[in-house]
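My current task is to audit a protein record that another person submitted. Alongside the sequence sits a line of tokens, each denoting a local backbone shape. Please read both lines and tell me whether the tokens look consistent with the sequence. Do not assume that whoever made the record got everything right. Thanks in advance; the entry in question is below.
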Amino acid sequence: MPGGQALLSGDVRALARAISAVEEQRPRAVALLRDVFPRTGRATVLGLTGSPGSGKSSLVDRLVAGYREEGRKVGVVAVDPSSAFSGGAILGDRIRMQRHARDDGVFIRSMATRGHLGGLARATNDAVDLIDAAGFDPILVETVGVGQDEIEVVRTADVVAVVLVPGMGDDIQAIKAGILEIADLFVINKADHPGADKLEAELAYMLDLVEGDERSRPAIVRTVAVRGEGIDELREAVRAFLDSAGRERRLARRRERAEARLRAVLAERVVRWVVERTFPRGAWDGVVEDIAARRVDPYTAVEGLIERLEVR
């Protein structure tokens, strides 16, 4: 389809337009995704997640520079909070990583969560596919940083790096958010701050308590992203994890992600189909108003919706 060939050849303008079409759910978006899908699955996807203020953006900036030194084309998806007024990303890609803006070997895209839970935008997986099809590898996905809801990144990335910072209570946050279960490696950023040794010791202790886990123990890497310290070690830790994971484990993870994505797309389509099929124009808003006014509870409303479908 028009634009598809340009995207597959690595045209960044075509890529940017394609991602916009996906975000805005334009009619041509699905057809484009279908066309490029056979050319996806080649890139390594590295997810970075962690508390707000942990320095994820600085880490991404340094990682991009390191991968470019290796001659690799790098894609970045930075998932930002949504503006309460426009629905767009509050932090834009023109603010982030400006030194890479003129580099044709780097594609950076900020995406708004638009209220989507899990730390990722609804269209993040589609954007990753498009960037992958355009020939960028690796692809770095930086989550919005919303604590417990961030764990959805594991459904997008081949490698998940959890970023922690000394002095921010990240040891407690790690337990609360369940990130011990999703981390393939840990990054203690701002490791020049007081408490870095304590944080690493507590993290190592918590990893010792994890029993019955067949996975290899996640590496712990110290970095000071603003000074570029530890970035080479972080890239090496990513490579080591991919080497140790083996082909079968990577295929198993991709299968899990494929199932989760199938369920998500199916749920979205089914809900849209049900609403369009069972509610005349304006009726949906009426039901919402009834629930808001406590005239009906949501469970009764859904049961009534199902009854309508059964009658049909």
User: Anything to note?
Assistant: The CA atoms of residues 43 and 137 lie 5 Å apart.
